[in-house]
Amino acid sequence: MSDFFIYLGLGFDHITDPRGYDHILFVVALCAIYTLRQWRQVLILVTAFTIGHSITLALATLRLIEYSTDFIELLIPITILITAITNFFYKEPRTRLMSANAGKEPTRPWRYGLALAFGLIHGMGFSNYLRSLLGREASIVEPLLAFNIGLELGQLVIVGLILGLAYVVIDLLRTSRLRWTLIVSGIVTGMALSLIINR
């Protein structure tokens, strides 16, 4: 059981590590158009991303699929850039009534598909790190499960922080949602472009 918690901690640390901030940027880009009242929509969105990266994390770690590491490392910031750019087309609710019922705003089903598809790419990125940790482990099923759970816990922390910050900025400081979305997405876009250029 101690090994389980070791790999769980490694998964948590991997996604929350500021030095490897590409996955953090992606989660931030995913959540940038949502408020705390829309936590159900965000939960579905994050679940779609989780399903995607869980599939390829398992397949790649078990060496059932092969791919170019350099190519995946380039694709990851591209997924961040695309997600951030889609946020620029967000339209703020027109009335106070709609804002008050933000959790009931129309869903954007295509974003769930986007999160799922891009999750497949991020899963291959996660697997690079996990395979380097496994070494000559006799069985990788338990480490794989623990690492994946750790990733999800870290991901939920990031989601909680970004939605909490959105609540402070939008609801307490009375900044428009559109301004919040554009600022956050603009910062993410700039950082994603830097990652693409460097890679």
Automatic annotation (TrEMBL):
Keywords tagged on the record: Membrane, Transmembrane, Transmembrane helix
Q: Which residues cross the membrane?
A: 20-36, 43-65, 71-90, 110-130, 153-173, 180-197
The family database entries (InterPro entries) matched by this protein are listed as:
Put_HupE_UreJ
Top-level lineage group:
Bacteria
Concerning Pfam families, the annotation shows: HupE_UreJ_2
Q: From the Swiss-Prot or TrEMBL record, give the protein name.
A: HupE / UreJ protein
